[in-house]
Design a protein that fits this description.
transmembrane; LysE family translocator; 199 residues; single chain; cell membrane; mainly alpha
Length: 199
């Protein structure tokens, strides 16, 4: 019963965190524009799967590693920042999909899963979600999976909006120059997330 009572406030928290800009949403927008919604779906589902694993792990003690070993947190920030810069470069230099080569591909499911463990926003979401809304009564494993699963169900339409927004922009962009400006802008926004990671 306590688990059900926690789902309402937890859902509001996840909506506010999932629909706001961050590395995942910026990359989904760029992917939606360049590859369309269908090809971006594995990336989107990978974000949800990665966050589910991360959030569940936090509830089961993974978050304590951050508290006991600050070097782990620092290492994740550096790794996450470097990977984000790599992705930003890939976005900024991507050829226009209708005018360049078509060999480019969006982030895969497993790449998106792995990125969540180096994504500080995902860690903040997981730590706050589990610290604030995980019921104390009942089986911790079941409660953790239930809360993490419900959180990702709520997050799905929120992040899907960003991929859909990108797809709409992709239909609107005309000519190689417009595509280059868009991709460079999205790459720069992705790279700018590093400021918040290391700040």
């Amino acid at each position: 019963m306590e688990t059900l009572a926690a789902l309402g406030p937890a859902a509001l928290f996840m909506i506010s965190m999932s629909i706001t800009p961050g590395p995942n949403n910026v990359m989904l927008t760029a992917s939606g524009a360049n590859y369309g919604f269908r090809r971006t779906l594995p990336h989107l589902l990978g974000i949800l799967g990665g966050c589910f694993l991360l959030f569940s792990g936090v509830a089961l003690g993974l978050g304590m590693i951050f508290e006991r070993f600050p070097l782990v947190q620092t290492s994740l920030r550096v790794i996450g920042s470097l990977y984000l810069l790599y992705l930003a470069w890939g976005i900024a230099t991507a050829p226009p999909p209708r005018f360049g080569d078509t060999q480019g591909r969006p982030l895969s499911f497993w790449q998106a899963v792995a990125f969540q463990f180096a994504n500080p926003k995902a860690w903040v979401m997981g730590l706050t979600l589990m610290a604030s809304f995980l019921p104390e009564d009942g089986n911790t494993l079941i409660n953790a999976f239930a809360l993490a699963g419900a959180a990702e169900l709520v997050a799905f339409p929120c992040i899907a909006l960003w991929a859909g927004f990108g797809m709409a922009i992709g239909h609107w962009l005309k000519g190689p120059r417009a595509w280059r400006v868009f991709n460079v802008t999205m790459g720069a926004l992705t790279a700018a997330c590093v400021i918040f990671i290391l700040g």
